[in-house]
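W.,

You were right to be curious about this one. When I first looked at the sequence I had no strong expectations either way, so I just let the prediction run and decided to look at it fresh. Below is the sequence, 101 residues in total, followed by the output.
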Amino acid sequence: MTIQITDDAKADIDWFATYLTDNFTTLELVDFDDRLQLFYSRVIAQPEAYPFADKAKNVRTYLLHKNTRVYYQYHKAENRVVVLRLFDTRQHPDKLVFAPI
């Protein structure tokens, strides 16, 4: 199984890392990275275990932290997971947009 991370998801990861670095201690940044690595291992093991956020678009969601969700697609035929976005759930849901892949 391969994991592809979109440019939007990379930008989101960078934003979270910068935010944590600027506002918290290294401990929170390490915790964020640990949670992200746990997501990768879990989604590789069971990509269909997590609920759909938008079934029509094949978008699933994973709760990374109480305020952070990962949105991804699982392409079974290609044996591939595409990480679309990381989203701070305290934002207005209208800000969550998925770019075409």
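Here's what jumped out at me. The chain is about 35% helix and 30% strand. And, maybe more interesting for your project: Residues 2-91 form a domain with the YaeB-like fold fold (CATH 3.30.2310.20).

Coffee later to discuss?

I.
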